[in-house]
Amino acid sequence: MTNEQIYQIGLTMINGVGDILARHLLQSLGNAEAVFTEKQALLEKIPGIGSKLAAEIKRPEVLKRAEKEGAFIEKNHISPYFFTEDNYPKRLRECPDAPILFYFKGNTDLNAQRIISVVGTRNATEYGKELTEALLRDLAITIPNLLVVSGLAYGIDICAHQNALKNQLPTVAVLAHGLDRIYPQYHRNTAIQMLEQGGLLTDFPSGTEPDRPNFLCRNRIIAGLSDCTIVVESAKKGGSLVTADIAFSYGRDVYCFPGRAYDRQSEGCNDLIRENKAGLITNAKDLLSALCWDTHSNTAPIQTELSFFNTEPENEENPILKILQKEERIHINQLALALNMPIQQLSTLLFELEINGKIKAIPGNVYKLA
């Protein structure tokens, strides 16, 4: 454990300094060590700090706690991932509220080529469990190195982890407590298996209890680590819907399995689809198609000829405009699915059309003709 790592851990131990403010301190002072060695009078002048937080930073107990945590993670072979370091997951780094530091114990690449998050209700029905099992079984056939992320909770979460393991897919659980415990205790054996085929991740230090607010906090990591979030089954309210909303706010894809109109355990999924916050899928094939993941080769998909997707105003054959002529308004996820195009590429084309005055964006990633 290096001195710099102790300072990095210490940055997360300061009362009143969260991830966003910690990032601001790093930008102002250069590195974690400088935060603790800078004079208090100068710390007070940094916007957002002031005398109270400057005094908190200078409290000796902060680095003592960091040293204790450093000894714990070193003894238990846990790896700290700091925001400014190269090994920090690139997808998570893009998120505005990404943890400045998190702890990981396991054996997998958090920058895997393809990562999905699978979440859902704790009160899963047989319908939800069967959907999860079929989804991961079929994805494992076409994408054998797919990384599956979830939260180790009862219901859909544990079903996702166990079926990932069953199909030899690496799987990571994002926890709402420190790595000195497993909650729920009933899932301990699955968690141990995951250390060899995935891992356990948290931004909470040892000694942290699995309190309710922590579960909501950890959902941002579940959403941020992956290319897309899949809600298998959810009631009207629930943590999986929070994860879906966070993923949507990050500009990540969200997909849901629909349920019967009067099925209370599917109300949340149906609402996400109705509100155009999620694309509708019924199987792994739908998901692969929506994400435009080429499963027939390891090479990047060949870009569609620019002339076909020319967004100049005079181009009447533009396929985006053709679809919008038929649909009064359409969500970007549905448009990407119809065009078989990655959302990132589609966003650029939509922006050009918007600049040219051909289309108009509506709140919620919905578009219509101008």
List the helices and strands and how they pair.
Blueprint: H1 3-11, H2 19-29, H3 32-37, H4 40-43, H5 50-57, H6 60-75, E1 79-82, H7 90-93, E2 101-106, E3 115-119, H8 126-142, E4 147-150, H9 156-166, E5 171-174, H10 188-194, E6 198-202, H11 212-224, E7 228-231, H12 239-249, E8 253-256, H13 267-274, E9 279-280, H14 284-291, H15 319-326, E10 330-331, H16 332-339, H17 343-355, E11 359-362, E12 366-369
Parallel strand pairs: 3-4, 3-7, 4-5, 5-6, 7-8, 8-9
Antiparallel strand pairs: 1-2, 2-6, 10-12, 11-12
Helix pairs in contact: 1-6, 8-9, 11-12
Binned, the helix content reads 40-55%
Number of strands: 12
End-to-end C-alpha gap: 58 Å
Architecture of the largest domain, CATH level 2?
3-Layer(aba) Sandwich
Number of domains: 3
* Strand coverage percent: 5-15%
| Major sheet summary line | 9 strands, mixed
Assign an overall shape.
globular
Give the overall pLDDT as a whole number.
90
Stretches where pLDDT is under 50 for at least 5 consecutive residues are 297-314
CATH topology of the largest domain: Rossmann fold
Instruction: Provide a count of the helices.
Output: 17
Q: How would you spell out the order of helices and strands?
A: HHHHHHEHEEHEHEHEHEHEHEHHEHHEE
Structural class: alpha/beta
Return Rg in Å: 22 Å
**Which class of the largest domain in CATH terms?**
Alpha Beta
Strand order of the largest sheet: 1-2-6-5-4-3-7-8-9
